[in-house]
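Subject: Sanity check before I submit

Could someone independently write out the structure tokens for this chain? I want to compare against mine line by line before I put it in a report. The sequence has 294 residues.
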Amino acid sequence: FFGLAAYIISRRLKIPFELQIHTDVMSPWYRNASWKERIHYSIARILIPRVSHIRVVSQRIADSVHTKYRWGHPPITILPVYTDIRRFLDAKPTQEGIEKLSGRTPRMIAAGRFVDKEKNFSMLIRLMPRILETSPNALLIIAGEGDGEKIYRAEIRARKLENHVILKSWQDDLTCLFAGCDMFLMPSRYEPCGLNQLYSLKYGTIPIVRATGGLNDTIENYDPVRKSGNGFKFTEYSSKTLLTTIKTALVFYKDKSQWNRLMINAMGEDFSWSHSAREYVELYRKVINKRTKT
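---
Independent answer below. Compare away.
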């Protein structure tokens, strides 16, 4: 909707219209998620052929736009997603948050809006009994808020998982949970930019994600031979592949030398704004120069 308003203003003021896209609006997962996403998709189809320049956060989104508008799209600049990691790391954990994690291994966290069509946290709840077969002391914390909370609580009770799956709100000690957990789980159907996996990387909380959206752009599968990669990801959207990926991560979790290497890789990633500031400054200079010439 902001893009539509910007287009109207640019027409009235006769100035170039720039559009920034943070999610793959051309993806079938996105446009079929809800009526709101279908409206966003329709607006994007109208605006994209009319802009003077597009900024996207990944090569994947650029490729998606190029495929949809193969014969008629404006120039595209890729500016990867970044976040203010420092503000998150500076938050102080509470004693209550520390006590909730005490004595449980492995500790897993999933965080995001309680919108199951997008985040699919219900799949994690259904798989928890299978995880407990090999890791009986495992703990899963699902942090967020939204209309799906009642559904999740009912599923937890139905499977008698109250001692192994905890629902938390955003107002609770999210910083402590990220810092104290071993793994970050995000089995999304689709994902816009994705910031929570960036927070988890800085804490050495290893991401296990579906290869979609910003999750795919920022997470690289761990290679035990080359000692490269910062997490684990899977492509096929199914509970079977998610469970297989979690079990693979649990194998490495038990190998402390491999897991320590993986944590070092994750914590060494740099998605801070200081890393991208020069790219944005250069892009804005180009926009100003273009406007001056016109």
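---
OP: Matches mine. For the report I'm noting this point. The longest helix spans residues 273-293.
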